[in-house]
Every structure is written in C-alpha cells, then in structure tokens.
Amino acid sequence: MIITWHGERARRHMTNEGHCPRCGAVLELGLHVVRDCSFSRMVWLSVVPENAQSLFFLLPLGDWLLCNLKSSIRWKSEKFEWQSFFSILCWLLWKGRNLFVFSNGHSCVQKLVDTSITWTKSYAKSNSAWPQPNPLVLNTW
Length: 141
Fold this sequence. Notes:
It comes from Gossypium stocksii. This protein is mainly alpha-helical.
C-alpha cells in the first residue's frame, strides 16, 4: 500500500491539485506533510530544542527519520524517549492532516503536542510494565 498525498496524487493524474491543502505550498510531498508544512513546522518548533532546529529541518526524509528514530535522548524532563514521542507526533500530524483534508477538521499546535505527550507517557508506562527480556547470549563452539 502506498500512502498518497496531494503531490503524489497529482503526479499520477488522480487530481489536478498538488498543493498542500493546509498551507498552500506548491507541492505537497510526504516530508512536507509531517515536517515542512507551516502547521507541522510550528508543532516541531515548539518541541525541538533550539540548538537542534537547523539540522532537524534540513535533513532529507530518510536521514531525518533515521536520526530521530535511532535517538536515545529523553525529551525535556519527561520520562520517555524522543523516538517514541517523535513517532507518535508524526502519526498525529498525518492524522490531523487527513482530518483537515477529508473532514475540514482543525487542530491547534498545543493540543497536538499535549496529546502526543499523553500518548507517549501511556506507551512508556505500559511498556515498562512488561518484564524486559534477557539479552541473547550466544555460545561459540
């Protein structure tokens, strides 16, 4: 299954409009939806530390995903890891974009961030309730 956004749908001649419905950018591509759209950018600017923002917004899609998904830092003083928060926030940005496009639904930056924090805390709490597996021990012959 391929996730399609306006730019991809326009390229496939499924629509005449390839612009971002939220901010009006000329071409809506995948990275635009979750990072570069003006709404998404406001969300990220509110959570990414100032000293990391330039790199955060310059990386190409693959590097951007890998960098954030492999990060082992904790977000602010919270008791959860950035990679969990990042993943949930990306999903909520995608979901919010679809609600905007298909239901004319609107969301605000702070509500999206607060929901991401709540969900990430819930995930971290449920994940810590399970016993952690012992590391795999390899025997050599």
